[in-house]
Specification:
Blueprint lengths: L1 H28 L1 H6 L4 H7 L7 E3 L2 E8 L6 E5 L6 H4 L2 E2 L3 E2 L1 H5 L1 H5 L6 H10 L7 E4 L3 H14 L3 E6 L6 E7 L12 H13 L22 H11 L7 E3 L3 E3 L6 E3 L11 E3 H6 L3 H10 L4 H9 L5 E2 L3 E2 L10 H8 L9 H12 L4 E2 L4 E5 L5 E4 L4 E3 L4 H16 L16 E7 L13 E8 L6 E7 L12 H18 L2
Parallel strand pairs: 1-6
Antiparallel strand pairs: 1-2, 2-3, 4-5, 6-16, 7-8, 7-21, 9-12, 10-11, 13-14, 15-18, 16-17, 19-20, 20-21
Helix pairs in contact: 8-17, 10-13, 10-16, 12-14
Keywords: Glycosyltransferase, Transferase
Protein name: Peptidoglycan glycosyltransferase
Organism: Leucobacter exalbidus
């Protein structure tokens, strides 16, 4: 009998230990994550009882709370509507949260650990609860230039601008955008209807194309990574030359690769790596990639950030650069096709790393957290993300990119800015063939930075469905995103 009682006692004790551990995990360890979960309805409802902190751009509120006089007490408003929607996201008591409203919810709603003693003090003093404000790194002038440039073209796509030296996000747009005010009122039926309409839009305005979504084939902007991998490993230099046919039959395949021009890369029997970058030729790049270890390029892509989890603090969908199975895949991957896919944020990181002497800085969208009594609660400092290439390699790649802008044969020459040395690279990615046998419109890219001697901005621009037969397979493939990139760089340099 005593033996059975001992066993029962030990079992009950063990269950209490398990229960204590589970309660501790929920109430202490997981508390912040549970509060921040976008599906936590209580957090949303409680958030409307607090004067939520503002989201600031250049010190001005672009998202803020105002009193309503009803049971919700406050409502969220967005002063610039769709301009900053890819950054602020929305805060809705029936549809949850997105953007910085979600990523910085604990600070904005005043429930973060750093505000614990402030909450106690406010309770004792009878002060109404308030959240902290979030100062972003966005520059209003640059954000507006990017948004207006895309809107004037009437295209879908995205723009990201970074400070190469610090990783600060200067602009981040996604087109088409949406008005967060449509999702922030206190009429649940109206909000649900508005959300349903936005979600059903074929253009998917709720999708942040700059950092998420379906991702894009990077096309020829990916050639910068191939060049960086080859030069860093000592397998090539800008003057290295390659066979220059107008067609290249891929190994173990019936597929023939062509340059975008459907001709040779220049007029000689050989083409250099520099020519291939400046004129964006496919065949010399494929030949180079096939001469190296088959994992050399994806490894370099990983060093720049591909396949890695990145938060800014918004979550950035990892870009894909899978290891190729054979030489044919090596060739196709080297020109940014096959299974290679990227966000504009990742391509901006590549250019920023080259601009910054081979050092990639961690992208950061937040400058500081400011308490309701205007104290700086937290200030973010620049942080190195990786060092994929040496300064010497970065200089070599930069030189080729600059010639892509400054020489008559360069496809990025539309990015030229008077009196400024600009480095740039265009990209045109094919997206397959439609059911009727016609080419699917291309994805167009531009990435670059300026000034070359003291980089202040690195930019990546992507335009969906912008090339192909509609543009005679040329012209529009280079000019549209390049023109947007130029305007964004000019906006930064005019500060």
């Amino acid at each position: 009998m005593n033996k059975q009682l001992k066993a029962l006692t030990r079992t009950i004790f063990a269950l209490f230990i398990v229960l204590f551990f589970a309660v501790t995990m929920v109430q202490v360890v997981q508390a912040d994550d549970l509060r921040a979960n976008e599906l936590n309805g209580r957090t949303i409802k409680n958030g409307y009882e607090v004067e939520r902190g503002s989201i600031l751009v250049d010190g001005d509120p672009v998202a803020y709370s105002t009193p309503t006089g009803d049971s919700y007490k406050y409502v969220r408003q967005y002063s610039a509507g769709s301009l900053y929607a890819p950054i602020t996201g929305y805060f809705s008591h029936s549809q949850g949260m997105s953007g910085l409203e979600l990523a910085m919810n604990q600070d904005l709603s005043g429930i973060g650990n750093a505000q614990f003693f402030t909450r106690i003090q406010n309770t004792l003093n009878g002060v109404s609860p308030q959240g902290s404000s979030v100062q972003t790194t966005i520059q209003a002038k640059v954000q507006r230039a990017a948004s207006e440039a895309m809107s004037e073209l009437g295209v879908d796509g995205a723009v990201v601008a970074l400070d190469p030296k610090t990783g600060r996000v200067l602009a981040m747009t996604s087109t088409p955008s949406f008005d967060p005010n449509l999702l922030s009122g206190n009429d649940d039926a109206e909000i649900i209807a508005n959300y349903g309409q936005l979600a059903d839009e074929p253009s998917q305005p709720l999708k942040n194309r700059a950092i998420a979504g379906d991702l894009y084939h990077p096309g020829s902007v990916y050639k910068l990574i191939v060049a960086a991998a080859a030069i860093e490993a000592g397998d090539a230099k800008p003057s290295s030359s390659f066979e220059n046919p107008d067609k290249l039959k891929l190994p173990q395949s019936t597929h023939e690769m062509q340059n975008a021009s459907r001709t040779t890369c220049g007029t000689g029997s050989k083409a250099t790596l520099e020519q291939a970058i400046v004129m964006s030729c496919n065949i010399p790049i494929a030949e180079l990639a096939m001469s190296m270890d088959k994992n050399a390029v994806p490894n370099m892509a990983h060093a720049f950030g591909f396949e890695q989890e990145i938060t800014i603090p918004l979550k950035v969908t990892p870009s894909a650069s899978p290891e190729p199975n054979d030489q044919s895949q090596v060739a196709l991957s080297s020109i940014g096709q096959l299974d290679v896919r990227s966000t504009p944020m990742q391509i901006a990181m590549v250019s920023a790393g080259i601009a910054n002497g081979g050092t990639v800085m961690k992208p950061q969208l937040i400058d500081k957290i400011i308490t309701p009594d205007l104290r700086v609660e937290k200030e973010y400092t620049p942080e190195q993300f990786s060092k994929p290439i040496s300064e010497k390699t970065a200089e070599a790649v930069t030189g080729m990119m600059e010639k892509g802008v400054s020489t008559p044969e360069g496809l990025a020459q539309k990015a030229a800015i008077d009196g400024v040395r600009v480095a740039g690279k265009t990209g045109t990615a094919e997206n397959g063939v439609a059911e009727d046998g016609t080419d699917v419109p291309f994805t167009l890219w531009f990435t670059g930075f300026a000034p070359v001697e003291d980089p202040q901005v690195a930019v990546a621009v992507v335009i969906e469905n912008g090339g192909g037969a509609n543009y005679g397979f040329e012209g529009g493939s280079f000019d549209l995103p390049t023109a947007v990139g130029k305007r964004v760089m000019e906006a930064v340099l005019s500060e």
